[in-house]
Amino acid sequence: MNALQRDLKRLVPLAEKLGADTVAADCHRQHYHIQPPVGWLNDPNGLCCYDGAYHVFYQYSPFDASGGVKHWGHVRSTDLIHWEPLPVMLYPDQPFDCHGAYSGSALVENGALYLYYTGNVKHPGPYDYITAGRGHNLCLAVSRDGVTLDSKQCLMYNRDYPSGLSCHVRDPKVFTWQGQYYMVLGARTLTDRGEVLVLQSADKLHWNHINTLTTPEPFGYMWECPDLFCLNGRWYLLVSPQGIPCQNVYGCGYFALEGDWRTKDCTLGQFYPLDSGFDFYAPQTFADEPHSRRILLGWMGMPDAPYGNQATVDCGWQHCMTLPRVLTRRADGRLLQQPAPELLALRQKNTVLSPGQAHLLPSARFALQAPVSGSFVLHIAQGAELHYTQPDRRCVLRFTDPVLSGGRTQREVLLDDACRSLDVWGDASSLEVFLNQGEAVFSTRYYPGAGPLAIRLDGAAASVYELE
Question: What is the spatial distance between Cα 468 and Cα 330, in angstroms, rounded to a whole number?
Answer without folding.
Answer: 32
